Amino acid sequence: MPTDASVEGGLDEPTELEPDQGSLALADPADDHTRADWEAAAAAVLRKAGRLAEDDGDDLVWERLTRTTLDGLAVPPLGTPDLLEELTTSGRPTRAAGWHVRTRVADNETALADLDTGATALTVPATADLEALLEGVLLDLAPVVVDAGDATSARAFLAVLADTTPADGTNLGVAATGADLVEVARLARDAGVLAAVVDGTAVHDAGASDVQELGRVLADAAAYLRTLSGAGFSVDEAAGLVEFRLSATDHQFPTIAKLRAVRRLWARMQELSGVDAPVPMRLHVVTSRAMLSRYDPWVNMLRTTVAAFAAGVAGADAVTVVPFDSPLGEPDAFGRRIARNTSHLLMSESHLGRVADPAGGSYAVEKLTDDLAVAAWAELGRIEADGLDAFDARVAETVAARDRAVATRKQPLTGLTEFPNLAETLPERSGEGDDVRRWGAAFEALRAEPATSPVLLATLGPVSAHTARATFATNLLAAGGIAVTSEPDGARVAVVAGTDAAYDEEGAARAASLREAGVGWVVVAGRPRDWADDSCALGVDALDFLTRTKERLS
């Protein structure tokens, strides 16, 4: 895989302003700063926050602020031109208009309601009665994609399509490596529709990282091309019959880079298969179900908006926004409407579809795109060499790493692990929620069985002295479904919150008085103290701490 990521084509040459336009100063010369200036300014902030020592060099800001993804890719805090030296772009997004607003439906009433109120395309289950489900749907205008299709569902769908010129993007939806692939591909070719979906969302839902999702998609795409070329299809003919489906999360820039990278990888795979002019990728993006939360579900609207924005920036041809209330059960009309409108607002008010590749030229995004593409190509090699069992083992390692990040709140989940609201009333929905294992599953399990008694919050000194640590401890406990109280009667566990000076002066005495009052477990908010049984501070394994605390309460 070539390592290429700089901008190709560039901007048009600048033209002189017309006389009546006057002059245009793009920047004040006083605003021209060097890399060293930025390092000095950033270092000053980090020293104030205690993340750099006074004698540390300013250039250490890069080490302190560089983030490492679950795939081990380094994401620097600032995009700079040197990141793109000797790199060139290929496989750039080409969509220069809006995308299809695609919704998933399982019955006719929902299908017609969605299409009447903003949806422009549908995903339908292969197991449904397709004739009944699609009754009244204008199949020449709205592309329909069958999910997890086979030869039987393909014939049933084609019967529904009889005497209709199907909308562009209509797909019989067979799994790319399914046993029925060749038969369905021939049916699709004859009918002028797509045949298959290469789906990465399933491994994403299982916990795969960005690189692992890309690698698995590439492996399935390679198997798809091999199967059809072995059955007499040309590679470019086979490439024109498939759509790709990937996930988008609220990690905005990695998502943009991942979706840009997959186009390059697909183009490269075709080139290596002998195609002179690679067939452009058809890309359907679904906002992540795993990133959603059952608690404070309104935050899911923000998560899916960021994910849909990233999908639009990265050139998705169709976007499905998962309704915010999906974790609670069957989404209601409001949840579905918000999901549809998310795309329309991004297209109609933010005009996101007017530029083909708005992230193109960004040093940081181009570099991350290249890094993901190279790493995903290597992951493809591992899958081809070691098989899917070894791949599943690597995904399990990723799940464990993500769980650790969530447990320590290095990957915060707003409304669940951060700023939880124990007094909230969840919206009521019928049926069961999504069966996917969400990133915050362990915390959701704690919240589902709240503590039967509260923790006593014992503060030291004036409010101004204990507020920060008392608030930290209160929010941390709430993340596990544990309330706090100021009433000492019957308390089994107490958290002492104050300043370090207060702990030195009166912490031991306060802990002793709490024990005399019947408290069996004393926690200090801050670093460990010999007079406390436990401690909680920034960076603590919150999941482990909350589990221990609930055990003491019971």
From TrEMBL:
Ranges where the record places region Disordered: 1-30
Compositional bias ranges of the Acidic residues kind: 10-19
Pfam families attached to this UniProt entry: MM_CoA_mutase (PF01642)
Gene3D superfamilies membership: Cobalamin-binding domain (3.40.50.280), Methylmalonyl-CoA mutase (3.20.20.240)
Domain Methylmalonyl-CoA mutase alpha/beta chain catalytic: 197-423
Superkingdom to which the source organism belongs: Bacteria
InterPro entries named among the record's database cross-references: Cbl-dep_enz_cat, MeMalonylCoA_mutase_a/b_cat
Subunit record text: Heterodimer of an alpha and a beta chain.
Name the record gives this protein: Methylmalonyl-CoA mutase family protein
Native species: Nocardioides aestuarii
